[in-house]
Structure formats: structure tokens, C-alpha cells
Amino acid sequence: MFSKGTKRKFSDGDEEISDESLVGARVASSYSLQRQSLLDMSLIKLQLCHMLVEPNLCRSVLIANTVRQIQEEMTHDGSWHMVAEAFCSAGQSPSERLVATEVLCRSREQDAEPKLFSVISYEGCREEEVVADETLCSVSVSDTVSNVCLAGRIGQCWEKSELSGVERDEEALEDSRLGSGEDEEIDTKDRASTESPKTIGQVFGTFEIKNGSPGPDSALEELFSDVDTSYYDLDTMLTGMQSAPKMGPYDILDSLAPSHSSPSIVSTPNCRSDLNELDHIMEIIVGS
Amino acid sequence: MMAGVGGGNDFQWCFSQVKGAIDEDVAEADIISTVEFNYSGELLATGDKGGRVVIFQREQESKNRLLSRGEYNVYSTFQSHEPEFDYLKSLEIEEKINKIRWLPQQNAAHFLLSANDKTIKLWKISERDKRAEGYNLKDEDGRLRDPFRITTLRVPVLMPMDLMVEASPRRIFANAHTYHINSISVNSDYETYLSADDLRINLWHLEITDRSFNIVDIKPANMEELTEVITAAECHPHQCNVFVYSSSKGTIRLCDMRAAALCDRHSKFFEEPEDPSSRSFFSEIISSISDVKFSHSGRYMMTRDYLSVKVWDLNMENRPVETYQVHEYLRSKLCSLYENDCIFDKFECCWNGSDSAIMTGSYNNFFRMFDRNTRRDITLEASRENSKPRAMLKPRKVCTGGKRKKDEISVDSLDFNKKILHTAWHPKENVIAVAATNNLYIFQDKIN
């Protein structure tokens, strides 16, 4: 169990395996498995926090700190990506291993600045609802697989099959950036082998939301420019943002205006029809 | 002053009373969430998850029954808090009473503060045993009389009536806490009190409800950087400028309000260095302090973390002077307790009147008492099975491994749903109140 938290080195596969080191390897992998299971449990608890009406802040903070501890130790051990690989090759389904699936969801673009959604909604708001668009959701209550994108990058979320419909509508999307624009299928085996430790380390990251950080990814920037980033500000959440992921009234007006250039994810298809309707109404009123 | 191990003149703890439903099916609203004696011990208040406060009053000692002291009977029941809905955040605000604190009695009426997650209320509990009769302007049933019908004047007369205990809210201290209130504490000046939530502590004046001073604020600018919260706070019993607050990282900060308006910088910082050999992923969680209480003398304070109770000398910051293990046998079960969330249970602790003993709760309806002088400890159980009047309580023992003796209970048989989180000790006598889910047990000593 975890009462003795002494670190054990994961045995290096290159060395000759003697009896002793075999035992040691077994013990080490058992510890890793237990640590992994603790990590999974903690992540599930944090998810449940989001679902509760009024999560206990103290409990959330303690669980989050535990997750950070595990992540730090795993990063330190360098055992992170080995564990992920082990799970992938064992053929476990993505939903069974939150961590592994997250890894699989990684976009091919490794240099794009990750936009991490905060895992911890300390204010008790429903994180997934606050995000302007469901399709951006990195913390989805219903779908176990998408739950994985806890500290995921926005790019990863676009890879989810449920988003594919919206994606096709969006001409402004640059497929290359989003990686899986062409390919919504998650090729599990393929992804696992293209791991890089750097991105793995970012997995749990700092639970940070990078508000409006100017990334090299201009297309993504443009994509989300009309999204009210104050939604992501937990402080704002605290003071009571709406739970429904609606655009504000002025956003709708903006989207109707012909000069509106930034591609709004949801509103573009509506925008055109609304515009036509507005014209039509104006015609009737003016009587021309 | 403990239940004696041997015979002699040591006193024993005996069952006195139990309040609450006997049903196996416990209504959520009936779960007791706080217990508190008043300054004289004459009154005992409980708050529950349904937002109700029940006050028990001790009856006058009867001459006939010398061996047992007066019983506690219901004195007043009222709905303190109602469930509310925060429309901005689309969140419900629970009506559960988190804390009750009595004010010292200054006149015939009694005053107490009750707090739920967001609002504190000052209640006045007063007795009415007389009624005025013979009003000039209104009838006996209260209807106004036609002034032209009044032909004579009379002086109203006070007539005795059945005792009626009224509770009325005198002050409502609202809208000052964004996070959940975990503590309230009346200051020794009897004019101010503090209220603490997860990230902030406010100082109030009892007369002023529309504003409070924020004296501690540990909210980080970026909430993602949050790693520590306030778990409990208390005013010093004698020095009205001193208070302490504990954190989820197992630290206690003592602050002096004279030093600065905002007491973010502590005067003293209490923390016991961690034992590296027992470090685990759960170390931080079990070090989180769930309760902090000053001794009556004001020289010591006691903290409760998940597995132990520690007594600190206010003059020594680097480690506690006494540590008592409450249920060390749970240390090997921490992973399971994390899984079922029991590891987050917040146990309270309390001192006896003379500060010679301390008490705290555990699982399986067990509660523990430690004698600071003799270093003896005892485990007792609050259960209906031992509920014959004046029945002596038998010490309980948890078997940690190996052969289980008769009357011992093994760790795996413990019922983790039966937790004793709230206990209170009479300020002057050996009478204790123990809240076991929806039942309130009162135990007292039996003088041999």
C-alpha cells in the first residue's frame, strides 16, 4: 500500500535481468501500478468535484495537491511514458485508463503552445458548461473518454469524433494546426509510440488556463478570439458567471454584423442565415 | 480524571441520556452538525443539517436523586437557517448549521451565534412566563377596539402563563463570505467575533451587520496557484487581540490584530516537522488540521488532524508538547479511506473544564479521551446498547492484528459510516455530549 512512500527506480530494460532485479522490477512495477491507480482515483474525484453543486474546497485542494505530488514523482522517475506505453500495449481500452487516453489524444503538433483548461474549478462552477462551446470542452461530464483532456490542449479536443461535424463547417480552421482535422480517428497505437517526454510532462501541467496568451498558433487564436476568456477566469466564476455556455447579447449582435471577421465557431453558420433574415425583415419594414 | 483502570475512587463514565430518533433510517436533515455547551453548562445547543437548532436545558438538581445530576430537556427548537439559492452561480447554499457559539450571558436572555456556509445569525432566546391582560386599545384576541366604545381606562395586569421560550433573530451577518464558513469564535471582549471561511477571516462587531473587517486573506491572485486553505480559527480566550487559524497543510498561525490591519503575516507559526520515514502520498491529507481549540487557561492550544490530537504550548512553535494517537490502526488503511472519502472527515476536539483531559471522536461511534496528567487514554462507544440509565460505559478496544480477544473489535469490522465528529465537554463538570449521526448522547460521571 502507500503507507511506505519510498521511491523505487523503475528497472531499465536494457540491463541483464537477474533474479534479484527481476524481483525488484516486479516490486517497482507494482508500486507504479498502485501509484497509477491512486492517480486515476484522484482524477475521478476531481471530476466529480465539478459535478457536485458545491464542492468542498478543502477536499478539492487536497486531492489536487495529491495529483501534483504523483505527477512530480512520475516525472522525476521518468517512469511516466513507460507506464503509458505499458498500458497501451496491454490493449486496455482508452476509457479504462484516463492517463493513457490523454496521451493518445495528444495532437501531432508538439510545438504549439498548449492551452490548458483548468482542472480545478475551485468555485464550484461547472467547468464544462462555462466553456463557450461544448466542442471546446475539455472536461466533459458525459463522455469518459473526453474527460481525459483534463489538462489537455485544445488541439486534442478537436480530435474527438463528436466534434467532427462542427469542424467540417469551419473553413477558417487550419487543418494542419489541428492535426486531426483530416483524421478524427484516434490511432491509439500510432500515438503512443510518438510520445515525447516534454509533452508528457505537460499533461498535468499546472492546471493553468493560459488566458489569451499569444501563442504561435495564430489560427487557434483567431478561432477563439471572440470567446470570452473571462469565463476561464476562476475569479470571475467565483463572482458568478452563468452556467449556460451562451454568448452574451452583444456577441450575437457582433456576429450579425457583416464586418465581423473572426470566425466564430458556432455562430458562423447561423450568422449567415440570421443576416439574410435581418435583411428580409428590414425589407418588410422599409417596404422597399 | 479518567475512567479508572482498576477500582478505587476513580470515577467512571455512565450513560445519562440519548436524544433523537431510534430509526435505522436516518433522515439527512436530522444529522447533528454541531454541539456546544454555553458558558455555565446549563444550556446545550445542537445544530443539524436541516438548519435547525435545538437547545436543551438542564433541570434543577433534584434532592431525591443524589447520584445523578440534572437531566437535559428540550428548552427551545427553532429553524435557524433555510436553504438558499445563489442565482448568480446556480448553486444551492445548504442550510446545514456548521457552528454554534454562545455569547456570555449578560441578562435574562441567552444569545448564540449560528452559522451555515454563508450567513451568521445572532439569536436571542428569551423566556416569557407572564402575559399582560386588560389592554385598553385592543381586545383579548388582539383586535383593535373601536375607540369610541372605550368608556373607561384600566391598567393592564400581568398574569402568569405557561413558560414560553422564544427565539428571535436579532442580527443577520450576511454577504461577507464567498467561500464556506468553517468557524466562528466570540472574542473575549464580548463585542466582536471572527468568522472564517476557506480563504478569508472576517472580524465583526456584534452590533454591526452591514460591514466586517477582513483580517486574513490567503486567496492567491491566480486561483490555480491555490494549494492551502484555512480549516479552522479561534479567538484567544483572554487576549482579545490574538487569534489562531489552522490550515490544510497542518500549520497553525497565531496572529496579533494590533500588528496590522490585515493579519496576513503571522506572529507565530506552528508546524511539526514531518517524519520522513512515514511520508506517503497521503501525508499532506492526514496532516490537514480539522479543528483548533485553545485551552481554557489560554496557555495551550489543541489541534486535531486525521490520526492524532496535538497539544501545543503557545510559547513553542517548532513542535507540539503532547501528541495523542486517536486511531493509528487506520494508517495502513489510508488508501481505502481516501477512496471512500473518509480521509476528509473533519473531527473536532475539546478540552475539559480544567484542561486536564481532552476528547475527540473516531469511527464506529467510538470516542476517545486522554488524560494529560496520567497519560491514560480510554475508548468509549456511543450506542443504544449501553443506554440503560446510569449504566457504566465499558472501555472498548480495537484489535490491530493477530489474535482478536473477546470484546475487541477488528479494524475491518469498524463501521466507517458511524463517525463521531462533534463532541462537547461541560465547562465545569464531568458531563459530555457526543453527537452520533442523528443521536445526541449525554454521559456523566458516576461518583463512587
UniProtKB/TrEMBL annotation, chain A:
Chain intervals for the UniProt region annotation (Disordered): 165-197
PROSITE patterns associated with the record: SERTA
Keyword Glycoprotein in annotation: no
Signal peptide stretch: none
Cellular component GO terms held in the UniProt record: nucleus
InterPro entries with a match to the protein in the record: E2F-SERTA_domain_protein, SERTA_dom
Alphabetical UniProt keywords: Cell cycle, Cell division
Top-level taxon of the source organism: Eukaryota
Biological-process GO terms, alphabetical: cell division
Keyword Transcription (UniProt): no
Protein name: Cell division cycle-associated protein 4 isoform X2
Gene: cdca4
Automatic annotation (TrEMBL), chain B:
A GO MF term: protein phosphatase regulator activity
Superkingdom in the source lineage: Eukaryota
Keyword list, A-Z: Repeat, WD repeat
Protein name: Serine/threonine-protein phosphatase 2A 55 kDa regulatory subunit B
InterPro entries attached to this UniProt entry: PP2A_PR55, PP2A_PR55_CS, WD40/YVTN_repeat-like_dom_sf, WD40_repeat_dom_sf, WD40_rpt
Keyword Cytoplasm part of the UniProt annotation: no
Family note: Belongs to the phosphatase 2A regulatory subunit B family.
Tagged with keyword Ribosomal protein: no
GO cellular component, as recorded: protein phosphatase type 2A complex
Native species: Cyprinus carpio carpio
Quaternary assembly: PP2A consists of a common heterodimeric core enzyme, composed of a 36 kDa catalytic subunit (subunit C) and a 65 kDa constant regulatory subunit (PR65 or subunit A), that associates with a variety of regulatory subunits.
